[in-house]
């Protein structure tokens, strides 16, 4: 593609590190320059440990400060300009969200063409801003998928990071796109832009705003998590570079003695181009860990997401097919990558998620049909562990997956680990992601998860834990209700009671994030603000924190909740990742049972993430009939060769173009007169990704929308 392009739309969990274009290479740590660079980082990061005003009472959220607005009411573009050379970005009186004018982009010839606004002189490094804009497709354009991203350049190298995932907008009304982003790296150019996921439809923008919540001091005189659990296991957090700065860096250093690089050590971040390695963000995280005496968990060498397309191209640059030559080439690339990245951090990483999410319990053998598996069978797993042991002999090597609290998946993982260990593959442990919500999994299910793997004699770690306040994709709160926070606290306490019971078997517990101000769940499974961690958007301890440490909250009302956090989009948009996912394929938690009935049904089908070879879909079924549905099967036909390769809160089957999704054990009953059920899936695509036009529920045709 000619011109700028935003990469990695379908990535997982960890907020804005989702994917990168090439960024400057840092000298290797084994070189003098590399050691000097990392040493400088350590000195810089050590300075973050300054003591702030002591307070155990949570600080109430301040009012947001707006630093820029664009209403377009003066008849100009107010600093917005085209990214390309052919599209037209101009003031328009055709429609307006408020007032009489908006910004129209037309004449586009590529999906990346669109309006952009320079913000280099407006934003402050280390401050998290909320980006908000109202969008509408131009008259006659129908439905369009838009997303908002930022472009950062430094010394001639560009980087594109997504702020708001793919969001459906129409020509019949206005839809808000809103999300948060922290500029954490050096930049000599920085701008926000809006583009379409595909196609060249014209669209309007109006009422753009850029705002932030003033920083609050962290609570320095409450017990640190790492001290409370000092005799049990290390307590970790998954972080990106923004979490190393200012108050967030102070919170991280106070409470945690382990860090996981949420995205910075993944393949797309470290080797976006073959043989060209970039370690800027990973080096910063390792330096922070060194400066604060923290362990480092490496995540991850092998995953079916966030792996550059070149990895799976054959010697002639075409997509690989299952041949002996391609198997040899793919395994050679895998070995070279692990030797480079694993070797660089051999002295710093205490544990690696060597392979991530390789189990698909819907397959008879339990193995995900990723390109890794299609080309190499199990040899990619064998090779990854063998090479990792050679280059990082002192690190513990883990196989990591989600929904291991579900017996069907757990059994498949158990059998795979048992087989590989019997072959002599050096697997040291099993990682349980433990993405959940306020109603699932229970303490008993978590207990069964840990107990099941004890006979294997492996270490176990909780690797990506968080607890969504939602039990349905149709829910959305700007401020978390008190009863949800109470339920969340109870859920966390139940889990930690189990972890402590098995502390002889569990060697680390890691949260997938630091605080509610930045979480992958803000865009998964739909776009809305979530509050899944122990600290709120102002970095203050929540009821869940006090429940985990076994103490009463010092205030009757509990920790402060935000008065204005990033507002949720009115219609579902956008991952692990878990990935991004989805890690986009993040471990989806089951929704509370609810959805359509035998008298009629409505289906809302949304592409919430789309990247060059795949996409994430989310579906909400509404029962419009007078009777409940007890057990359901939703069917549709793809028109462009799309292939489903994973689903959650459901079971999938596909025959040719025909897809059948059936309910999971917990959401088979759909209440009458407006009850809903929701599920999500990941699918591959190539060329065109048209939305299915007909859906049937238990044989009855549903309306769309």
TrEMBL record:
<feature type="domain" description="GH10">
    <location>
        <begin position="219"/>
        <end position="551"/>
    </location>
</feature>
<feature type="domain" description="CBM2">
    <location>
        <begin position="594"/>
        <end position="705"/>
    </location>
</feature>
<dbReference type="InterPro" id="IPR001919">
    <property type="entry name" value="CBD2"/>
</dbReference>
<dbReference type="InterPro" id="IPR001000">
    <property type="entry name" value="GH10_dom"/>
</dbReference>
<dbReference type="GO" id="GO:0045493">
    <property type="term" value="P:xylan catabolic process"/>
</dbReference>
<dbReference type="Pfam" id="PF02018">
    <property type="entry name" value="CBM_4_9"/>
</dbReference>
<dbReference type="InterPro" id="IPR008965">
    <property type="entry name" value="CBM2/CBM3_carb-bd_dom_sf"/>
</dbReference>
<dbReference type="InterPro" id="IPR017853">
    <property type="entry name" value="GH"/>
</dbReference>
<dbReference type="InterPro" id="IPR012291">
    <property type="entry name" value="CBM2_carb-bd_dom_sf"/>
</dbReference>
<dbReference type="InterPro" id="IPR003305">
    <property type="entry name" value="CenC_carb-bd"/>
</dbReference>
<keyword id="KW-0677">Repeat</keyword>
<dbReference type="GO" id="GO:0030247">
    <property type="term" value="F:polysaccharide binding"/>
</dbReference>
<comment type="similarity">
    <text>Belongs to the glycosyl hydrolase 10 (cellulase F) family.</text>
</comment>
<dbReference type="Pfam" id="PF00331">
    <property type="entry name" value="Glyco_hydro_10"/>
</dbReference>
<dbReference type="InterPro" id="IPR044846">
    <property type="entry name" value="GH10"/>
</dbReference>
<feature type="region of interest" description="Disordered">
    <location>
        <begin position="1"/>
        <end position="27"/>
    </location>
</feature>
<feature type="region of interest" description="Disordered">
    <location>
        <begin position="556"/>
        <end position="599"/>
    </location>
</feature>
<protein>
    <recommendedName>
        <fullName>Beta-xylanase</fullName>
        <ecNumber>3.2.1.8</ecNumber>
    </recommendedName>
</protein>
<keyword id="KW-0624">Polysaccharide degradation</keyword>
<feature type="compositionally biased region" description="Low complexity">
    <location>
        <begin position="556"/>
        <end position="598"/>
    </location>
</feature>
<keyword id="KW-0378">Hydrolase</keyword>
<dbReference type="GO" id="GO:0031176">
    <property type="term" value="F:endo-1,4-beta-xylanase activity"/>
</dbReference>
<dbReference type="InterPro" id="IPR008979">
    <property type="entry name" value="Galactose-bd-like_sf"/>
</dbReference>
<dbReference type="Pfam" id="PF00553">
    <property type="entry name" value="CBM_2"/>
</dbReference>
<keyword id="KW-0326">Glycosidase</keyword>
<keyword id="KW-0119">Carbohydrate metabolism</keyword>
């Amino acid at each position: 593609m000619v011109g700028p392009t935003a990469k990695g739309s379908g990535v997982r969990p960890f907020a804005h590190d989702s994917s990168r274009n090439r960024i400057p290479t840092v000298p290797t740590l084994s070189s003098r320059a590399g050691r000097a660079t990392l040493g400088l980082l350590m000195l810089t990061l050590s300075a973050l440990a300054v003591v702030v005003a002591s307070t155990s009472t949570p600080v109430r959220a301040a009012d947001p400060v707006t630093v820029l607005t664009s209403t377009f009411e003066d008849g100009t573009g107010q600093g917005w300009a085209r990214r390309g050379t052919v599209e037209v970005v101009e003031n328009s009186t055709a429609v307006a969200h408020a007032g009489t004018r908006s910004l129209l982009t037309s004449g586009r010839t590529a999906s990346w063409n669109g309006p952009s606004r320079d913000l280099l002189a407006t934003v402050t490094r280390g401050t998290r801003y909320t980006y908000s804009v109202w969008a509408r497709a131009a008259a006659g354009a129908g439905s369009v998928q838009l997303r908002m991203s930022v472009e950062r350049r430094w010394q001639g190298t560009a980087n594109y990071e997504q702020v708001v995932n793919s969001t459906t907008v129409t020509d019949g009304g206005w839809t808000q796109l809103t999300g948060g982003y922290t500029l954490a790296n050096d930049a000599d150019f920085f701008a926000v832009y809006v583009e379409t996921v595909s196609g060249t439809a014209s669209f309007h923008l109006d009422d753009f705003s850029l705002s932030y919540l003033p920083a609050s001091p962290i609570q320095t005189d409450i017990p640190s998590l790492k001290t409370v659990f000092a005799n049990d296991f290390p307590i970790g957090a998954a972080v990106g570079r923004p979490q190393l700065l200012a108050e967030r860096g102070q919170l991280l250093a106070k409470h945690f003695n382990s860090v996981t690089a949420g995205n910075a050590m993944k393949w797309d971040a470290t080797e976006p181009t073959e043989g060209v390695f970039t370690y800027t963000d990973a080096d910063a995280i390792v330096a922070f860990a060194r400066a604060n005496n923290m362990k480092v968990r490496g995540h991850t060498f092998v995953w079916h997401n966030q792996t550059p397309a070149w990895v799976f191209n054959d010697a002639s640059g075409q997509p690989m097919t299952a041949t002996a030559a391609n198997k040899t080439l793919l395994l050679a690339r895998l070995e070279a990558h692990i030797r480079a990245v694993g070797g660089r951090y051999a002295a710093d990483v205490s544990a690696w998620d060597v392979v991530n999410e390789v189990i698909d319990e819907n397959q008879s053998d339990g193995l995900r049909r990723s390109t890794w598996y299609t080309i190499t069978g199990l040899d990619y797993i064998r090779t990854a562990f063998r090479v990792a042991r050679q280059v990082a002999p002192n690190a513990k090597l883990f196989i990591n997956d989600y929904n291991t609290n579900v017996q069907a998946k757990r059994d498949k993982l158990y059998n795979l680990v048992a087989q590989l260990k019997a072959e002599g593959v050096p697997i040291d442990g099993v990682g349980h992601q433990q993405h959940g919500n306020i109603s699932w999994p229970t303490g008993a299910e978590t207990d069964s998860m840990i107990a099941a793997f004890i006979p294997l004699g492996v270490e176990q770690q909780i690797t990506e834990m968080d607890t969504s306040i939602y039990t349905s994709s149709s829910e959305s709160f700007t401020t978390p209700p008190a009863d949800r926070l109470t339920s969340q606290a109870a859920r966390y306490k139940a889990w930690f009671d189990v972890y402590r019971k098995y502390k002889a078997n569990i060697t680390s517990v890691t949260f997938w994030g630091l605080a509610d101000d930045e979480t992958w769940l803000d865009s998964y499974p739909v776009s809305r603000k979530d509050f899944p961690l122990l600290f709120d958007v102002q970095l203050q301890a929540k009821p869940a924190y006090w429940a985990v440490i076994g103490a009463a909250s010092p205030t009757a009302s509990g920790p402060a909740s935000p008065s204005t956090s990033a507002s949720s989009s009115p219609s579902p948009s956008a991952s692990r990742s878990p990935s991004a996912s989805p890690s986009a394929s993040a471990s989806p938690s089951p929704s509370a049972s609810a959805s359509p009935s035998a008298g009629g049904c409505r289906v809302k089908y949304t592409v919430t993430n789309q990247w060059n070879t795949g996409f994430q879909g989310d579906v909400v079924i509404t029962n419009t009939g007078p009777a409940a549905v007890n057990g359901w099967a939703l069917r549709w036909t793809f028109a462009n060769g799309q292939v489903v390769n994973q689903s959650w809160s459901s079971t999938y089957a596909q025959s040719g173009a025909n897809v059948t999704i059936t309910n999971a054990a917990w959401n088979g009953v759909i209440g009458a007169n407006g009850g809903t059920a929701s599920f999500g899936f990941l699918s591959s695509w190539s060329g065109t990704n048209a939305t299915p036009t007909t859906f049937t529920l238990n044989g009855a045709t549903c309306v769309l929308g």
